[in-house]
Design a protein that fits this description.
6 strands; 4 helices; alpha/beta; six-stranded mixed β-sheet; Rossmann fold
Length: about 150
């Protein structure tokens, strides 16, 4: 399972860097539920290495310290700083709706993953010419209610 999650993280990082690589000053915001987590420490280091390889990318990393309200505040600050993309490792998977609403009005691409492998993973893309389009991505075997 760790290989799958690490691969997912690598795809996430490359998607974020690739989607915004054309900007001269591209800011990417990352919030991780807890830096102390061994696996998330590996993911964080991999994201930081990828960001160093892209000179036009400014990476804004945040440790949410396993506190969802702190993570919500961090997301607000990142959006206020004008990040082009967000990578969010949710503290509480039930807060996905709140996080989606925060980014919905912004011209910001984002990816969210959770520490619980059975929880839905959401991808949302907001374009300036259209409303936000949401896609649910099935992770493992899961049934989604509409």
């Amino acid at each position: 399972m760790n290989k799958k999650v690490l691969t997912l993280s690598a795809v996430m990082a490359s998607m974020l860097f690739g989607a915004a690589a054309h900007a001269a000053d591209t800011r990417i915001g990352v919030t991780i539920y807890k830096y102390d987590d061994n696996f998330m420490s590996v993911v964080r280091k991999a994201i930081e290495q990828d960001a160093k390889a892209a000179p036009d990318v400014q990476l804004l990393m945040n440790d949410s310290q396993n506190d969802q309200s702190k993570q919500n505040d961090q997301i607000d600050v990142l959006l206020a700083k004008g990040v082009k993309a967000l990578a969010i490792n949710l503290v509480d998977p039930a807060a996905a709706g709140t996080v989606i609403e925060k980014a919905r009005g912004q011209n910001c691409r984002w990816f969210s993953s959770t520490k619980n492998r059975l929880v839905r993973r959401w991808i949302a893309t907001t374009k300036p010419t259209t409303l936000a389009r949401f896609q649910r991505v099935r992770h493992y075997s899961g049934r989604f209610d509409c």
